[in-house]
Amino acid sequence: MPVRVFFTSVSASTQIKKNQDRIFSVLTSKKISFQPVDISQNSSDKDLMRQGAGNPAALPPQIFNGDVYCGNTFALIVFPQIPDSCIFSLLQDITAFESAIEMEELEKFLKL
């Protein structure tokens, strides 16, 4: 199964749009084929993304290799409803994606 990137074409958040563009740009430049899945067009895709990420409040973009969850690039925006215990997890996701790019281990991050 191909790499799938769950994204939204409808968002008021510039940070979400930047993260999505970053993922698309990196995958395209590395010639890694991927299937974009627009969660704003189908609520069942949003439910699938959240279930696969193991987080009922997960926001796009989220990256999967087939059914295997790889992570995201959620840039931390402090929302009052995000518990402190989740902040560490979010920061790990950001660091893992960016580190994989820098260390030229994107394929490992994507579990290819």
User: Which oligomerization state do the chains in this entry correspond to?
Assistant: single chain
CATH class category name: Alpha Beta
Number of domains: 1
Gyration radius, in Å: 13 Å
Instruction: Name the CATH architecture.
Output: 3-Layer(aba) Sandwich
The third-level CATH topology is Glutaredoxin
Low-confidence stretches: 75-91
Overall body shape: globular
Classification by helices and strands: alpha+beta
Assigned CATH superfamily: Glutaredoxin
InterPro entries: Glut_rich_SH3-bd (IPR006993), SH3BGR (IPR051033), Thioredoxin-like_sf (IPR036249)
Family: Belongs to the SH3BGR family.
GO cellular component, one term: cytoplasm
Structure description:
This protein is α+β, with helices and mostly antiparallel strands. The protein has one domain: Glutaredoxin (3-Layer(aba) Sandwich), CATH 3.40.30. Helix content is 45%, strand content 17%. It is built from 4 helices and 4 strands; from the N terminus they run E-H-E-H-E-E-H-H. It has a 4-stranded mixed β-sheet with strand order 2-1-3-4, sandwiched between helices. Helix 1 links the parallel strand 1 and strand 2. The longest helix has 19 residues. About 15% of the residues have low confidence.
